[in-house]
Amino acid sequence: MAAYVIVDMTVTDPVRIEEYRKLAGAAVVAYGGRFVVRGGKIEALEGDWNPQRIVVLEFPSVEQARKWWSSPEYRAACEIRNRAARTRMILVEGAR
Questions:
Q1: Percent of the chain beyond pLDDT 90?
Q2: Looking at the DSSP assignment, which residues form a beta bridge with residue 37?
Q3: How confident is the model at residue 6 (pLDDT cuts 50, 70, 90)?
Q4: Can you say whether the dihedral through the CA atoms of 16, 22, 23, 25 is positive or negative?
Q5: What is the CA radius of gyration of the chain?
Q6: CA 31, CA 67: separation in Å to the nearest integer?
Q7: Is the pLDDT of residue 95 over 90?
Q8: Among candidates 86, 67, 75, which has minimal Cα distance to 23?
Q9: Is 60 in contact with 5 (CB distance < 8 Å)?
Q10: How is domain 3-42+54-93 classified at the CATH fold level?
Q11: Closest CA to 58 of 41, 38, 43
């Protein structure tokens, strides 16, 4: 069953985040993932959630998403991201 990683990101360093995006993108692909949403216009429909940037990743399974998230490749990217953005991230199983 597919799994999705949903990221709510507020970029604080636009220059540094570009380096993160390159490393993170390569890691996503290496672990069988794909970008479903990578930025784009956001429109709040309900509630007070007003994110700056949303990213949605799809992986073949929860296990594969966890492998990506804990991989050395992604950990290296995260070191850069942590200096360039504030991030909230969740992992959710797809519909059965």
A1: 95
A2: 56
A3: very high
A4: positive
A5: 13
A6: 7
A7: no
A8: 75
A9: no
A10: Alpha-Beta Plaits (3.30.70)
A11: 38
